[in-house]
Design a protein that fits this description.
Blueprint: H1 3-15, H2 17-34, H3 39-42, H4 47-71, H5 73-79, H6 84-87, H7 92-111, H8 115-133, H9 141-158, H10 162-168, H11 173-186, H12 195-218, H13 222-245, H14 249-261, H15 263-274, H16 277-284, H17 286-294
Length: 300
């Protein structure tokens, strides 16, 4: 493998490309929730602001996870020496430059859509860096902090229609709870964990997909959204139940990976509930892409 190829792969591993696909799905779901795709906006529909928000989340998520590896470099020398920084493929300075560049691109791309979108991007950046440096070390605040990143990302998509934020700001709590539940068990993916922690996550999961069903019903799109909700529930519960039977590190790692990738199915359900079946299927097309990339690059 050449030096340039090795570096490129190292940078991609730092950015978690499979996870970035899930962040794009957040934006597309937020766009659906905002009403941007309804007849009210259809005459002036322009894919440019959607593309800019997708670029923004790519930069924000990519930069956030790069700085996570920068902060964890010393710990990874012991627990995950194969990662790009501890293995020496990418230096800490190079990672800092990459992460900083990605965050700046993400913020600037969001500001091209509007001031509210830009400030949400700033909020996501701050929240991600707080998690990277301090948040993940706290048992309660860590999961909430990580969930807040996802909740703000959904709002970033909704911000394409600013008035919609006043109506749907509270929906950020759904990904906050969900990702907090995923993060709650991610702490045990190296050394294994307890069944009690997994059961708490299972209860949170149930609350999330039941809430999704209720909201889809209220939107009068329950039968369109239901297959996506069922797929979401299957994707998160299958590996979780296996981990509950055997809470070993590898099984918990698979449950965490499944929980992250399943975000695309969750976002497809939102698209079905608030927009249309074709748009939901378009979002769902990101799922096989993310799964394929996750086989080449680690998700956690």
């Amino acid at each position: 493998m050449s030096y340039i190829t090795s570096k490129l792969i190292g940078y991609l591993r730092l950015m978690r490309p499979a996870n970035i696909i899930t962040a794009i799905a957040d934006i597309l779901a937020g766009v659906a929730i905002s009403g941007f795709l309804t007849e009210v906006y259809i005459d002036s529909l322009d894919i440019l602001p959607i593309a800019c928000l997708c670029l923004a989340t790519m930069g924000l998520y990519g930069g956030g996870v790069v700085f996570n590896d920068v902060m964890d470099a010393d710990l990874d020398k012991e627990e995950r020496p194969e990662r790009p920084i501890p293995s020496g493929v990418i230096s800490r300075t190079q990672a800092i430059v990459l992460g900083g560049y990605l965050l700046v691109v993400g913020i600037l791309a969001a500001f091209t859509v509007g001031r509210i979108s830009g400030w949400l991007a700033v909020g996501i950046t701050i929240t991600a860096l707080v998690y990277d440096k301090w948040g993940k070390h706290h048992a309660f605040l860590g999961p909430f902090n990580m969930g807040l990143c996802r909740g703000l990302n959904l709002l970033l998509g909704i911000s394409i229609v600013v008035p919609a934020l006043m109506d749907y700001w509270w929906m950020a709590f759904i990904p906050i709870i969900y990702i907090a539940a995923v993060t709650n068990i991610s702490r045990d993916e190296v050394h294994g964990g307890s069944v009690k922690r997994l059961r708490i996550t299972a209860v949170c999961y149930a609350g999330v997909y039941i809430t999704m069903g209720v909201l889809a019903f209220l939107q009068h799109h329950i039968w369109i959204a239901l297959p996506f909700i069922v797929l979401f529930a299957f994707m998160i519960n299958r590996p979780l139940l296996r981990a509950m039977k055997d809470p070993s590190g590898p099984n918990i790692g698979k449950a965490v990976k499944g929980g992250i990738i399943a975000l695309i199915a969750m976002n497809a359900a939102w698209a079905a509930a608030f927009a249309s079946l074709p748009y939901a299927l378009l979002v769902l097309l990101l799922l096989p892409i993310s799964i394929l990339i996750s086989r080449m690059f680690a998700v956690t």
